[in-house]
Amino acid sequence: MVPVWLTDTVTSDLNRALHYTQLWGLHGMELRTVGGPDDRIPFVNEKQIREQMEGTELLLASVVPSMFEGPVSDRAAWMNDLLQFEDTLKLCRRVGCPRITVSPFAAEPGVSLAPIAEALQQAGEKAAEYDLLLAVRNGPETACPTGQALADLLSRVDAPNVRAAWNPVGALRAGETPSIGLTALAGLVTLVRCSDGEVQDGRWVDTPLGEGAVGWTGQLEQLAAHGFQGPISLEVYLEPRPKHGLRSATTLIRMIRDVRARAAHP
Q1: Helix, coil or strand: residue 6
Q2: Cα separation, 28 vs 34, whole angstroms
Q3: Are 223 and 189 in contact (CB under 8 A)?
Q4: Measured distance CA(194)–CA(248) in Å, rounded
Q5: Cα separation of 107 and 136, whole Å?
Q6: Contact call for residues 126 and 85 (beta carbons, < 8 A)
Q7: Rounded Cα–Cα distance for residues 24 and 249 (Å)
Q8: DSSP 71-88
Q9: Residue 73, phi then psi, degrees to nearest 5
Q10: What are phi and psi of 230, to 5 degrees?
Q11: Reduced to 3 states, what is the DSSP secondary structure of residue 231?
């Protein structure tokens, strides 16, 4: 398991993001917005990314384009996403990124999984031409709020490079016990989103990593038991974010180390 982070949860400035990555002891980054507020992958300064990453040993774990984030009922919009997807694929090839994280469309009443699977099938086939992974993220705002829902969707997609970006906080917010969601996704996870929180008085409250209701030690142990060795991507939502980012990164690194130690000496 490799500790990385989703940089624009703290800063979209690449130089600052690189500084935090190294300061916090993380191994890499997941990029979504790089530069100004409208500089979303793939419409970013690619030359800057290449030049800034050169000379470091940091992993570029994933990029997150604005893709499949609207309702699947808007077929014209997601067909346009597929047309623009080529730009993201070419960017990944040039900057050495193995993985693209996308949403399974927005939640809408009575939505069928069939057109969602169709869109992901087409995207997966395009990504396979570049030898890239497509990671599909669950979340309460999406058509797949839980791990079980995401597993059901992925079972309909005949593309082995289309995998899960498991988001246990998203599942928890949707009412699913994270251990149950991860069990449903056993063997399908290629990236894990990492934050924590709990419901207090009927509303969601973000907490420091390890102090919420996710049960991160159990999650990491479960991932290790499934043979997962991919990126654990930290998200930071508590203020001040740089301070809490350092704290959460330290906690995540310690948790991963402890799980590895227990696995090596059961």
Answers
A1: strand
A2: 15
A3: yes
A4: 9
A5: 14
A6: yes
A7: 6
A8: -TT-HHHHHHHHHHHHHH
A9: -65, -20
A10: -90, -165
A11: strand
Tell me, what amino acid is at 215? G
Give which of 38, 3, 2 is closest to 246, Cα–Cα.
3
Residue at 66: amino acid letter:
S
> What is the residue type of 173?
R
Residue 31 structure tokens:
């990029």
Tens digits of pLDDT across the chain (266 residues): 999 999 999 999 999 999 999 999 999 999 999 998 889 999 999 999 999 988 889 999 999 999 999 999 999 999 999 999 999 999 999 999 999 999 999 999 988 999 999 999 999 999 999 999 999 999 999 999 999 999 999 999 999 999 999 999 999 999 999 999 999 999 999 999 999 999 999 899 999 999 999 999 999 999 999 999 999 999 999 999 999 999 999 999 999 999 998 877 76
Between CA 74 and CA 259 the distance in angstroms is 44
Looking from the CA of 36 toward its CB, the CA atoms found within 13 Å total 2
Q: Which two tokens stand for residue 53?
A: 């990453």
Report the alpha-carbon distance of residue 135 to residue 161 in Å, rounded: 8
User: What residue type is 149 in one-letter code?
Assistant: A
| Polymer length of the chain | 266
